[in-house]
Amino acid sequence: MVAPLDNRGKVAHLLRRFGLGASPHELDEYAALGPQKAMEKLLDFGPDEPSRLHPLQWAFKDDKTEAEPGAYRFVGQWVYDLMTTDKPLREKLAVFWHDHFAIDDNKVEDGLATMHYMVTVRRVAGGKFRDILGAMAKEPAFMKMLDVRMMSKGEPNENFARELMELYTLGVGHYSETDIKEVSRALTGWTYFNTYYEAQGKNDDKLRKMHQFDQPYTLFAWVPDAHDSKPKTVLGKKVDSGEEVLDLLAAHPRTAEFVCEKLWKFFGSDTESPSAVAKLSKVFTRTKGDIKAVLLEMSKIPEFWSDEVVRRKVKSPLDFTVGYVRAMGSKLALEKLVPPGMAFDAPVPKPVFDNVLGVLYWMGQQGMTLLYCPSVAGWEKGQAWITSNNLLRRRQFTGVFTFYQESKDKWKADTCSQHVVAFLNARKPTKPRDLVDGLCELYDCPLPEEGRMSATSFIEKHGGMAVTKDETTFAYIMQETMGIVRLAPEFHLC
Q: Where are the chain's structural domains?
């Protein structure tokens, strides 16, 4: 039996699951509110506060060569915001929906359509399920992912209809082949256009013009003449249009269960809990799919606070990597390099570009690259994240803004390493064990005694407290010590 959590422990649990880690700075801020108010704060997305960067900035290059509107560049915007956001649940919930309505730009092959999808999934993440379903089902990148181009009465798309029910609403086995055919007929008339590639000029000029006139890069379209207007019956109900199908699916009792099962697996536990899902489904149904209400309920039910759940969920590559860099001060480091009010076509500063895309690279090395899902079913999760290769990559990851080269033969501690050193110095350490305990607090790791002894021994062998006399040496030894801490199984659970 694990000791009951105090208020600070409860808030830390909320931040690990509904936030992007429980680093001391964020934990101090939220713990002062208490668990209930802390959850309310997490759920308060507030008005959309613009990022210091614009998604288009990632396309423009500082070497003055032609802009490159590729998804692999645009995704930097999302990673940058994950590293700096004050609204962590808004971003984490968007990642959930990205996994649910999964796309892979290797198949979409349209950077601007993928960027449009990225903006949409983040914008609608905290709404009601019917609105989320409607927005995502009509995203051109999502439609292309499911092999849609033009759904007409002569050529309905049964694959899209099947996936709409199997992967996004009802789940396997809750519809018939007849339902698939009828849904595909109801969706006829749906298509999309790529306006960017029909424009004239170089990428730089086209991007500036489309931004100037607020012209969409890609858009959904409804073509009435292509719609099959004959009567249709889906799940025993008369329908005509695609919108009516979405209404029917969003309100179906099985959809409530299916979505809540996935929400529980993502935010609650890698282990199924029929009792938790039943409680969440009731709220989903009562509130007509209000996702925030469902998450609030999750934060209150006993299952969420059980010994089988607290610190028992495997960290995803995003939880591991983003949580790590946020703990070491990525927000402060990035915002020092990104002045407010940058022009939308000003290239992202190179250190920002390199470090942010570096985080994306290390996530990918662990099996998770945003906007590049492995299939329409999203990522395999839980224990699937723990492979020998993934653990090796986690061991190798050291963070961002660690050291910079001052001269040919001299390196200095960079912003995030300075943040780590400052945190440890503020604790007034007197012995190596104090440094280890400080690292465990900073990176939110309940390292067992054996692990703390190993990390302490490492510091002692490399100079002991003498390493604290030089900032760069101090930072380097702490970085290497964290390599030992990251070996602990506890570091990979949240």
A: 414-494
